[in-house]
Write a structure and sequence with these properties.
With 310 residues, this protein is an alpha/beta fold. It folds into two domains: 163 residues, 3-Layer(aba) Sandwich (Rossmann fold), CATH 3.40.50.1400; 133 residues, Rossmann fold (3-Layer(aba) Sandwich), CATH 3.40.50.1400. It is built from eleven helices and eight strands. The protein has a four-stranded parallel beta sheet with strand order 2-1-3-4, with helices on both faces. Strands 6-5-7-8 form a four-stranded parallel beta sheet, sandwiched between helices. 40% of the residues are buried. Its EC number is 4.99.1.9. Involved in coproporphyrin-dependent heme b biosynthesis. Catalyzes the insertion of ferrous iron into coproporphyrin III to form Fe-coproporphyrin III.
């Protein structure tokens, strides 16, 4: 297999079952277990979303399989995909180790997140590269693909589909959103915020949406301030401005998971209902063929670039 290129598909990860929630959040909290109160709250969120049945991990599995299928169809025999998760097994390091065990000596890493930040994608890259260097694997990375034409096309289709049932006689506010990060990323000119605005602007323009704004969601609970305003605050502002119809477009996320299914579909929906507003959400990308092609084309382009500089 030494002539094949490994593709490490990285993601944040989710627990494999309700029983794995404590271990998962202990890893996120750098070895500090959540308090019983926090664990109960977190478990309650998952219970509200999945009802004790846990399909969230399957989203990532299907995305990795979908990417493998497109790569096989495009260049049969050239690429083999491996999964590496930030906070759950198989960890990023496990994915790289599995490559080495299979004789892979050249690899490309890509994250199931279109926008680069030193605190998100940058962290994935550092962990993967450290293990790759230890094992003698030459590894390059796709750091972002936030303006890939097929990604934009897929998001435009979702915005147009979701906005179609709204009453066109009344104003509609489209709220693009992504996972918040600590404000300190601005001190290092991190591209995360600007890339998200570029994606939102491109989607809005192509979808014919003129009335939109960007907001944040799912901020962590730390002492440091996080990017805002949060979508719950934005909904209040939009309501005060007279809007009764809102479409949530979480372009920073690529699959159904807790930050979408709970933070938007339950928490934000409850806030909108309290404000007497209609809130709808675009469908997530998951294994949309255009998204799978976005990933595959980004991997192949990085492979070609690597070959050219060697």
């Amino acid at each position: 297999m030494s002539n094949r290129v490994g593709v490490l598909v990285m993601s944040y990860g989710t627990p494999e079952s309700m029983d794995g929630i404590e271990e998962y959040y202990t890893h996120i909290r750098r070895g500090n277990a959540p308090t019983p109160e926090l664990l109960a709250e977190l478990s309650g969120r998952y219970e509200a979303v999945v009802g004790g049945v846990f399909p969230l991990r399957e989203n990532t599995n299907r995305q990795v399989a979908g990417l493998q299928a497109v790569l096989d169809n495009t260049q049969p025999g050239r690429y083999v995909c491996y999964q590496g998760l930030k906070h759950a097994r198989p960890y990023i390091e496990d994915g790289v180790s599995n490559m080495a065990a299979d004789g892979i000596r050249q690899a490309i890493g890509i994250v199931l997140a279109p926008h680069y930040s030193t605190m998100s994608v940058g962290g994935y890259v550092l962990r993967a590269k450290e293990r790759a260097d230890e094992l003698g694997i030459q590894m390059t990375f796709v750091e972002s693909y936030h303006l890939h034409p097929k990604l934009i096309e897929a998001l435009v289709d979702r915005v147009q589909t979701a906005i179609a049932p709204f009453n066109k006689e009344e104003p509609i506010k489209v709220l693009f959103s992504a996972h918040s990060l600590p404000v300190k990323i601005r001190e290092v000119n991190d591209p995360y915020e600007s890339q998200l605005l570029e994606t939102s602007s491109a989607v809005a323009e192509a979808a014919g949406v003129k009335d939109w704004q960007f907001t944040w969601q799912s901020a962590g609970r730390t002492r440091d301030p996080w990017l805002g305003p949060d979508i719950l605050e934005t909904l209040k502002e939009v309501s005060s401005a007279g809007y009764k119809q809102v479409l949530a477009a979480p372009v920073g996320f690529v699959s159904d998971h807790l930050e979408v299914l709970y933070d938007l579909d339950i928490e934000a929906q409850a806030a909108a209902k309290g404000l007497d507003m209609k809130l709808a959400r675009i469908q997530m990308l998951n294994t949309d063929p255009l998204y799978m092609e976005t990933l595959a084309e980004s991997v192949i382009a990085k492979d070609l670039w690597t070959q050219e500089i060697e």
